[in-house]
Amino acid sequence: MKKIVLIPLDERPCNYDFPGLLAKETEYQVVVPPMNIMGHKKQVGNIEGIWKWLFEETKDADGVIISIDTLLYSGIVPSRLHYDTAEELISKLEQLKKLKEANPKLKMYGFNLIMRNPKYSSSDEEPDYYEDWGSEIHRYGHINHKIELGIASEEEIKELEDVNARLPKEYLVDYIERRKVNIEVNKRAIKLVDEGVLDFMIIPQDDSSPYGLTAKDQILVRDYIDELNVGLSVYMYPDADAVANTLLARMINEDKEVKPLMYVRYNSSKAPHIIPAYEDRLLSESIKYQIIAAGGLVASSVNEADIVLMVNAPADNMLDLHVRHSKVNKKTIEYDAFRNIIESIEYANYVINTLNKPCIFADVAYANGGDVQLLKLLSKKGLLYKLAGYAGWNTSSNSLGTCIPQGMIFDIYNNTKAHKDFLALRYTEDVGHCYHARSVITLEHLPEMGYDYYEVDGPRGEVSKLEKKELEKFVKEYVIDDKYDIEILDCWLPWNRMFEVGLDVQVVEK
Fold this sequence. Notes:
The chain has 510 residues and is of the alpha/beta class. The protein folds into three domains: 2-118 and 173-255, 3-Layer(aba) Sandwich (Rossmann fold), CATH 3.40.50; 130-171, no CATH class; 258-415, Rossmann fold, CATH 3.40.50. The protein is 45% helix and 15% strand. The protein is built from 18 helices and 15 strands. It has helices at residues 13-16, 18-23, 47-57, 68-73, 86-93, 95-102, 130-149, 154-166, 169-194, 213-228, 243-256, 283-293, 341-353, 372-380, 396-413, 417-444, 446-449, 462-478; strands at 2-7, 28-31, 63-67, 107-111, 200-205, 234-238, 261-266, 297-298, 307-312, 319-320, 359-363, 366-367, 389-391, 484-492, 502-509. The strands form four sheets. A six-stranded parallel β-sheet has the order 2-1-3-4-5-6, sandwiched between helices. It has a five-stranded parallel β-sheet with strand order 8-7-9-11-13, sandwiched between helices. The protein starts with a strand and ends with a strand. The model has no long low-confidence stretch (mean pLDDT 95).
């Protein structure tokens, strides 16, 4: 058994549990810090304790995957709230040199985010002032970036004047200065790659867009990557919560000395050219990065491919599935006439049952949830538990960074019980929770219970019990087939809100 140490991005299941679940029933053991030293959303964890644990656990480890955001700030949300100086943070980061010295054979992968700049006003994961001024801060960055590029309209320039007149300067200064500090940390981490301390690094962008503060920060970081000429060892693309999965797959592929070829097939000729919601580039370009970051290459044909990636996407204008009953989220021609989901199912069936090749479904039709139409058709065709991978949660890149690593691990270890359990988890969470239970509970139950989307009655209160009941209804209708039942062993709401769910799910053979 080979040991891979993971410092996760935070304590939510997608970051803390998924890599270990993907590696289950392989010869790789993923170990994570005890939950009691991790942070909790905005609450900072025991950073000194995490460092101490890291040094102890890597003494006999074969590899380590490090969220630098956790080592320095205690997680993704505290990285947006801290008041540390660049000098203080870089001093901590230098300890990674000692980690390498203590175990020179240790394969070290790292990742560190470019700070996001959401377009909406909410302090749920941002500084308190973002509740009232988040939209204005976003527009400040977006319009200024377009002015610098010479593409801002007169209306946008006038809007910026209004934003500048209203936006409290102390909030803007606080926000901009923190971004500057985080960029300096990113640069120092990149230098550690150049110095051979980190073997590989990903700089993911959480909730990005083509213009704005995050896009401008990306330019600064990319320029530094170019300056050091480390572009082959430092990748930058949209993602956050799935990066550890990607690095796990890369570590396994490198250890096995394999480089899987993946053929990509879209259900719409326009799909490769869309820019997914919350992202900054064409879908096809993100997919290329996701595949090579995980240790593979894009195949030019299905015949030469080791794995086939089916992409379920709209032809344009990706909709958000956050609240499925919203009038905004009614399907459009981009989802109906302009994509051919039936052909995708038939082709997947051909790949699996005739070509005998692993087939993954990247369900990126919607932001923040899976496509129930796809799930129903997969079930009808008898493919649910024959897929090499499936994901349809949060952003497009979160889904890609989950199903691609799963498919690569499947290609090595085949259809294990752990693999089927993870498929069942994805169907239950990505479609069951995101499409069904979350919206039903939010709209029909929370108001009468006195709660709202962002605050319920604790991780394991009555709302979590309602969630479990709704999910059990869903899997009974959509995910159970003639051969398998699904048991939901545990269900909780990690951050005391409806956005994400924690689940322990297993497949039971009939």
